[in-house]
Design goal:
This protein is mainly beta. It has one domain (about 1-239). It has 3 helices and 14 strands. It has helices at about 1-10, 25-30, 215-220, and strands at about 35-45, 50-60, 65, 70-75, 80, 105-115, 130, 135-140, 150, 165, 175-180, 195, 210, 230-235. Strands 1, 2, 3, 4, 5, 6, 7, 11, 12, 13 and 14 form an 11-stranded mixed β-sheet that branches. Strands 9-8-10 form a 3-stranded antiparallel β-sheet, with no helix packed on it. Helix 1 (about 1-10) crosses helix 3 (about 215-220). It is globular, with a radius of gyration of 17 Å.
């Protein structure tokens, strides 16, 4: 626990730093009053596979403040495509729409609803937690009634093929958080988008946002469901 607290304090030592990072006004204008935490991910364009993440919190004066240094993350192997989030934003001109299997991470604003992992739940995680076992799967079969959901195969009737195991051999789901992309579970619009551990500093994802274990643990420690956290993922040139 002490080591995790030190990690979080390292991330959160924004005071006195030279950063002038701000959230775009068009984003702050649409965030609900209940949202007090934002993971702000920016990429240089919609084709890149690398991005940076900053933590922001809304203070008692209703002002958004940076809470971290830039954290390196990896996104989709084919970059970014416009996703379905909450609140929804207009699709920028020239932006691809997120589709199932396109290898793109979603751009937009998304709720962060729960944590998960193959590790037993730790008491420092505030989000609701799914302890994943070999029976848990992320469903990407568009024909399934469970599309875009994590299910326990012992508790539901199987109507899918080729699901994604939630305990992959590479360990990328040892810890993670669910990004509520495509909250209506519309078939074909993209499924099972997570924050998770990267497989290497230069390894992109299939559509998720990945980072080092140290940074992910610190972020999971910080996220609080009572503060209605959001992932905001954008292209810098379109902020």
């Amino acid at each position: 626990m002490y080591r995790l607290l030190v990690m979080l304090l390292t991330l959160a030592s924004c005071a006195g730093m030279p950063t002038r990072a701000t959230l775009p006004s068009e984003i702050t204008a649409v965030l609900p009053a209940s949202c007090q935490q934002v993971l702000f991910v920016t990429a240089v364009d919609d084709k890149t596979r690398a991005a940076e993440l900053l933590l922001f919190h809304r203070n008692s004066a209703d002002v958004w403040k940076c809470f971290s240094n830039a954290i390196p993350v990896r996104i989709g192997r084919h970059g970014l495509a416009w996703g379905l989030g909450e609140p929804a934003l207009p699709v920028p001109d020239g932006f691809r729409l997120k589709q199932e299997g396109d290898g793109c991470a979603p751009a937009g604003i998304f709720r962060i609803t729960q944590a998960f992992g193959s590790e037993p739940r730790a008491n420092w995680i505030k989000l609701p937690y799914i302890h994943c076992t070999s029976h848990h799967f992320g469903i990407d079969d568009m024909r399934s009634r469970h599309y875009n959901q994590i299910v326990d195969a012992r508790e539901v009737v199987c109507d899918w093929s080729s699901p994604e195991t939630m305990v992959p051999a590479g360990g990328c789901y040892k810890l993670g958080a669910v990004i509520a992309h495509n909250p209506q579970n519309l078939p074909g619009r993209g499924s099972c988008i997570f924050l998770h551990l990267w497989q290497g500093e230069n390894v992109p994802t299939s559509g998720c946002t990945a980072m080092s274990e140290e940074n992910l643990r610190s972020i999971l420690m910080w996220l609080d469901p009572e503060k209605d956290p959001r992932l905001v993922q954008l292209v810098r040139s379109r902020e």
